[in-house]
């Protein structure tokens, strides 16, 4: 009863996106119907609490290629993406945000390049972010600079989660033991031949951002700790620097003592103590981030639970990773 594998699956994670649904469906469908190939759209409903589920059910009645993966609880953008990508059946799998900031029209171009050049990964790269706030652009630039340093130059700057993966790349992702890898770093790290398609990032079509500052900070910390142990060594370097400074101060003190000058300087003493205390706390905190990662990994809890998968081959039922 398995249907033929679609040529392309489009994975759309969504959390409370009822207001963009009609427009999203209209634009996505226009592009995908135009391909003239079998496709599936895999909407991942990340535990939405608004009318998203009802909206998707309504769309499904008129759009047979729409498949709805419902997560039992809100698990976050990354986990929702992974859930969708690993369950997509297409020969190529494209992930795209629901809010139409990434133009669905670029999917055709991604597919064309992947086929023409035999690429396994095609990144959507934001050529123009003028629609984003200055703060978002500034933090994003810092994030990508740091990630290129930590993970390597193969991480394309300004490539978010709008990208195409071949079946081979999806299977490689599946092999990873991580529950919910940060895809935008892990995908380049896999080392498949890749290309880029640039596009203009548009304004969110409707609704509000689901990425408040706290989530952005969380993604940044996870990105760093999942790819680099360098921060753990910060303590060592600071310690060595402290020893060097100490040595100089001892020499200075001895010379002053020989010269017969009395030692004053309580303020410098407590500033030094406070500084060292702060550095120690900072290093402890860094260590804590890594311990937390180990803790989460050892617990081995799934990053998400799939409540239902409607429209794949009937209802594939509950499942988890
Ligand atoms: N999203 C999700 N689960 C969440 C938060 C966001 O599936 O917990 C989806 C959201 O619906 C959208 C995508 O992730 O399709 C990107 O989120 P958003 O557009 O709010 O982020 P921004 O573009 O502001 O960074
Ligand atoms: Mg957005």
Task: Describe what you observe in this structure.
The chain is an alpha/beta fold. It folds into 2 domains: 8-212, Alpha-Beta Complex (Spore Coat Polysaccharide Biosynthesis Protein SpsA, Chain A), CATH 3.90.550; 229-299. The chain is built from 10 helices and 9 strands. It has helices at residues 21-35, 52-62, 77-87, 106-117, 134-151, 167-175, 183-190, 213-227, 230-258, 266-299; strands at 8-14, 39-45, 66-71, 92-95, 121-128, 159-166, 194-200, 305-310, 319-320. Strands 7-5-6-4-1-2-3-8-9 form a 9-stranded mixed β-sheet, with helices on both faces. Helix 5 (134-151) runs parallel beside helix 8 (213-227) and helix 9 (230-258) runs antiparallel to helix 10 (266-299). It is elongated. Mean pLDDT is 87; it is low at 314-320. Bound molecules: uridine-5'-diphosphate and magnesium ion. Uridine-5'-diphosphate binds at residues 13-15, 17, 46, 74, 76-77, 80, 97-99, 101, 209-211.
């Amino acid at each position: 009863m398995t249907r033929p594998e679609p040529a392309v699956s489009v994975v759309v994670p969504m959390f409370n996106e009822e207001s963009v649904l009609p427009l999203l469906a209209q634009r996505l469908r226009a592009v995908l119907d135009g391909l003239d190939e079998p496709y599936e759209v895999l909407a991942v409903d990340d535990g939405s609490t608004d009318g998203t589920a009802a909206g998707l059910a309504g769309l499904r009645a008129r759009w047979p290629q729409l498949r709805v993966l419902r997560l039992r609880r809100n698990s976050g953008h990354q986990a929702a993406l992974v859930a969708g990508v690993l369950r997509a059946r297409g020969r190529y799998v494209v992930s795209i945000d629901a809010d139409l900031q990434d133009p669905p029209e670029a999917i055709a171009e991604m597919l064309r390049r992947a086929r023409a050049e035999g690429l396994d990964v095609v990144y959507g790269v934001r050529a123009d972010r003028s629609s984003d706030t200055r703060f978002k652009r500034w933090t994003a630039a810092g994030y990508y600079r740091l990630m290129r340093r930590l993970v390597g130059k193969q991480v394309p700057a300004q490539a978010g989660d709008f990208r195409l993966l071949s079946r081979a790349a999806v299977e490689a992702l599946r092999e990873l033991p991580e529950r919910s890898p940060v895809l935008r770093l892990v995908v380049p790290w896999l080392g498949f031949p890749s290309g880029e398609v640039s596009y203009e990032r548009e304004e969110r079509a409707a609704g509000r951002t689901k990425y408040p500052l706290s989530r952005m900070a969380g993604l940044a910390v996870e990105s760093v700790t999942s790819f680099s142990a360098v921060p753990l060594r910060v303590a060592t370097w600071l310690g060595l620097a402290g020893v060097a400074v100490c040595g100089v101060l001892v020499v200075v003190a001895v010379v002053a003592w020989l010269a017969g000058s009395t030692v004053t300087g309580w303020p410098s003493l407590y500033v030094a103590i406070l500084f060292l205390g702060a550095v120690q706390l900072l290093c402890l905190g860094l260590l804590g981030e890594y311990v937390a990662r180990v803790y989460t990994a050892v617990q081995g809890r799934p990053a998400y639970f799939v409540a239902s998968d409607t429209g794949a081959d009937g209802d594939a039922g509950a499942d988890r990773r």
